[in-house]
Amino acid sequence: MMITHRPLLPPMKMTMRRYKGGSQDPLEDVEVYVAYGRYPQAVDFLRNEINKSPERADLKVRLLELLKEMGDDAAFQQQAHLCRHRCRCGCGHCPFGRCDSDAGSGSG
After folding, report:
1. Which of helix, strand or coil describes residue 33?
2. Of 28-32, 45-49, 78-82, 102-106, which range is least confident?
3. Does the pTM of the predicted model rise above 0.85?
């Protein structure tokens, strides 16, 4: 008797259709890309989602994690700098929920 194994993940074409629907949380979609080893696409997807929802610190943190996992130190440093810069500008988009410039002033 021949035993066939079902794939743990659906075929890539099926999962890619789901992204266009946008019905799930973006972090779930990112994990599908990561599961298939498609880190550059996961990073691009996250950057687009961050542009749509700049208040979501969880997306920014995951982007930093992915860049670190990929070993892209230059992109990691650039993204971290952007997060710090935006935070100091008072826009409220610090990925960690508070401004570095407030840390020493006692107001954070």
Report:
1. helix
2. 102-106
3. no
Quote the number of domains for the chain: 1
61 and 46 Cβ atoms separated by less than 8 Å: no
Range of the domain at 83: 24-95
Is residue 6 a part of any domain in this protein? no
In a domain, 37, yes or no: yes
Residue 42: CB atoms within 10 A of its CB come to 23
Evaluate whether residue 106 is within a structural domain: no
Q: What is the CA radius of gyration of the chain?
A: 18
CATH of the domain at 65: 1.25.40.10
Three state DSSP letters for 44-96: HHHHHHHHHCCCCHHHHHHHHHHHHHHCCHHHHHHHHHHHHHHHHCCCCCCCC
For position 31, what pLDDT does the model report? 93
Structure tokens at 2: 């021949």
pLDDT one-digit tens code per residue, 89-99: 555 555 555 55
